[in-house]
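Practice set, problem 2.
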Amino acid sequence: MAFIKKPVTGMRDILPGEMELRVRLQGIIRETYLRYGFTEIETPLVEHIGNLTGKQGGENEKLIFKILKRGESLKRSLETFGESLKGDDAANALDGGALTEEGLRYDLTLPLSRYYAANSGQLPQPFKALQMGPVFRADRPQKGRFRQFTQCDIDILGDPTNLAEKELILATTEALHNIGFDRYDFYVAINDRRFLFELIRYAGFPEDDAEEILITLDKADKIGAEGVDKELSEMGYAEESILKLRKLLDGCGTDAAGVKAFASAIGTETAMNAGENVSDIMDSVTGFKGRKIRLKFDPTLVRGMGYYTGTIFEIKTDAFGSSVGGGGRYDRMVGRFIGQDTPAVGFSIGFERIMSILMEDGSGLIKNEDKSAWLIEKGMPEDRLKEIFNEAGEKRSEGHRILMVWMAKNKKFQKEGLTAQGYTEIREFYINELKH
């Protein structure tokens, strides 16, 4: 059988031009986060299957890449479960761990929670974590969506106050500012999960149906207000509840004052606490003098992860149909590992989506640094070649990027190719330099 040249479906090869941009982009983001006091860590790509299927990851738990047991462990499982691994029962056996003990991580938050639970005694408090790395989801591939993709996360664990949310918003928006993403007029949509359940009670929907109602509400930015109302009606909910919900949402402002008015309209203590939290964050962050930061209160923002407990936020821009980043507070996830809740909040940049925008834009948000290509005539004497090596070494030690290659016969074509690769200077070294 011949080898297959194409990568596995949903995965992709990255060519040098894009890879250079990716590395530079990650470097700017990393440097920004380090200036805010975040500490870079790394967690394994492979996680315990019980952790991944612990009903914390929402829809992503349906998209886990599971790793089959191996060797004697697999053999014993096959002998033990026998008939249950045939036909329709095979999937249940896989989900139940009969044939799997591990899986590929679907995000960086759950592995971070396990990491913190295992190492908190050796970590500063609060702990400001920075992670960059690949995650995997067995999703249907489409434009801007892959089965392997990179996430850039910052999280603060151990701080129960919204100072953590403020720092995350400042750091994330500055990282986007530093790569020139301001040109896309992005903003941070913000909400509090506590509002969502109070909103359902306020409108008179059955509380037991909260999750499915929220799934519909979360579609508001895609299907609009009329689409949400129509879908809720088709699901059989009372027209009175739908109208009450719509009246409150339509009368809602997007600034800090709008948050307070929204909380007051609901009127419960939980809603008032959520309103105080969100409005305080907005007042602090939008008043930042260093640069303009746009925040908008969005009461229909839900976020799909089941682990969020308080503030939630997303980065949005008209340049891309969906969000290009998001996060929120997840105060109960670490407690799943240690039996005691630990305050935690994180913000993730959707690196692949941002890269898609940059690659399609074509204008290059990040200025290319100077790169030199040195073309050396074949047959160059060793003593002269050493001199060229030494000169290149000095230049590289000063921070210059130098590519050294043999001179091609078709020099014009070679130069055109190097220019297309971003080389701004091309030097030529000949055996008889006096002739040239």
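Problem 2, part (b): a different protein.
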Amino acid sequence: MHVGRPKRARRSAAWAASLAAMTLAGGVVIGTPATADLRDDQRKVKARISALHDDLEHTSAQLARAMKELQETRSKLPAARNALAAARQAQQDAQARNEQAKADLAVARADEQKAREQLAATQAALEETRSQVAGFAAQLYEEQGTGTLAVALDAADPQQLADRMALNEVLGEIQSGALQDLATTSASLVATQDFLAATRAKVAIAQAATEAALAAAAASAAAAAAAQAQLEDLEARQANATGALEREKASEKQRYDDLTTQSDQIAARLAEIARQEEAARKAEEERKRREALAAQNNGSGGGPKPKPSPSANPPASGGFLSAPVRTGWVSSEFGWRVHPILGYARLHAGRDYAAGCGTPVYAAAPGTVVSAGWGGGYGNQVIVAHGQVSGGSLATTYNHLQSMAVGGGSVARGQLVGYVGTTGLSTGCHLHFEARLNGVPKDPRTWL
């Protein structure tokens, strides 16, 4: 195990920190604009999950889906909260307009009532004035032809004449005043009728405004209720998604522990093979040493010395292994990283080749198939031992295979051993290729 974390681990840690920084306790995604487009948010979440795909190697699809669902739900929450706030504000504004409209209607109706009372009073005064004028008209008709001369002729004495002339003058003034009052009251009646008509129009306008404001308030209330329901639904979905994610985290931790156990079992098995190979090598060297010593003791030392057998160890300068696939690309290198969901550091013990399911996988070097079958979290797995290389026993493993083409025996370099798949703990079609020296995972690039 490396003491320090290499660049890959630091970059993975940065990704994990970035992912953590994007969420708050309430599930709000920082940086999402108030008017966030939900489809754009969803695209961003998908892109974020896709960018983290390399770090999700050896992660179950269930955990990845739970994380994706939680992130997508969180991305919708800010817009839903903004929509609810806007709907509530619109509801308050509509209710305020409704209250103002009702107040305006009350004032208009009060003005209408006042105008009606004024009209009734004016009509009563007009009727009274008309009655007075009618009385004077009747009196004038009865006294038609009776002027100042008649008054003088009918007077018995000068005092009676003066009294009748003064009375006649007073009656004339009263009659003239009654006629003037009639004209004034008639004009006031017309004005009051016009005021009443205008007031009624104002009442109609206020009534229409009240009805419109009431309808707007009802619509805003319905919109606020819908926004509230949507937000509550999203919050419930977030709670469910959070619970599902926590459950998947616990399961994933167990699966990761199982995967670690499986890796340790592979290491122990390959270490045993390494011990056996080393013991065989030492036994062969001892046998050759004894044969050489016996030959010397038998006096055959004068003959030509046997040439040393070529070393069984290929050069350690690189190039011993060939690429296990002929198409695709390297999507993830060997090294330490931080799991973006679980948060703990782990060793990515091999090299990932991104290729479609069904892509042929070839032996990276000649060797012996020591295992071909189900490898737990590694899925369908083939393990090939290549003998002594670089001072140790080198083996390669081919993991997550869709199917296997070998079951045992020897294989040559470039021989088909299986097909790319996504079995075991895998989030997509790829080959997880490992190189192990004495059972310990090493960077395959050392020998490629």
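Answer key, part (b): The chain has a mean pLDDT of 76. The radius of gyration is 53 Å.
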